[in-house]
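Sample pair:
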Amino acid sequence: MYKKILISLALVAGLSSCDGDYTDWVQPEENTQQEAKEVAMQFTAVTDLIDLDKVEGNVVKIGDFTTANVQKITDAVYTVKAGDRSYGIPVAEDGTVTVDNLKSAVVELYGRDVEERTLEGNISAKGWTDTTDVQNQNLVVLLKTTEPVVIKVMPQPMASYYFVTGNPNNWTSSAVTPLFPADAKHQSLTTYFWGAWDVKFWYVDDLGNWDKAYGCEVDGCNDPNGKIIGQNAQAISSPEAGYYTFSVDFSTNEYTWTKCEEQFPAEYDVIGLIGTITDWGSDIDMTQVIGMDNAKTHVWYATDVQIPEGGEVKFRANHDWAANWGGQEFPYATGADGGANIVVTPGGTYDIYFNDITKQYLFIAK
């Protein structure tokens, strides 16, 4: 009974002290977030030419960070510029970048010509003075190089084939609507365009990757000409609805719209391939690309066509020789009415494309 009374008194005393104004605890210090300060950063770039055709793997070193009093570097970006264009390349803490990002920067700024390029720009990053807690923003400083970082790059030779996605093929990501090459720098597509958010296009190896689609800066831009961009690219529109030639100059990364004089081109039931592969007796029927609103686009394709070395082929309409086209150049050219047999070399398996308005043809080896 005595022990119970003592315990009761202790509990009452404890409750009484909680009701008072006495506080026996230390006020916690406020952790006021300080604004990150900017610190000069040093980056020593490599001096040797980076030949992308000889790099093994998908990373390449462009230099080294040498900033003092920084334990860790994150979010580094090398912003290279050429004229009024710029491209941001993420840089790892060990001074490496991916080959893909370096390729994209060269293409974005200079096109796909295989010429030595000098990339110049600054690197910005976050620097951490203590790596034990990278979430604590009080430990971070903003880093930026004070002198331009300069590297020399030789682009990798690559097949310059591009495919359109947009209204002329219902925005498919399949390889059915190419830009037809005139030469290594100039390619085009002639078909019907709707005058509203008509096209983007991909390099052949990037089909379906929207982050790498080419277009214009302003969504739906319908200027008669403009700049091609590869980052955050928007859909390009023809100036108005009708038959146009959409041309791209890859040496300047510019596009141009040219309205066709003939706005009612001839239509064919089928375009076929005929030649030694069929003993000149029958056709391999090609498929016409169908655009928005079931529109006929006058662009035809056939896939996985096997042609031996030195095989000869022509294009013809409606299984008849009344309208046929050939040429003396391979793998692309503009066919001539009743032209020469197209000699295929080397032999192999090809995807084949034909535009019945312009008579342009294209063979892409698989």
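Confidence is low (pLDDT under 50) at residues 1-33.
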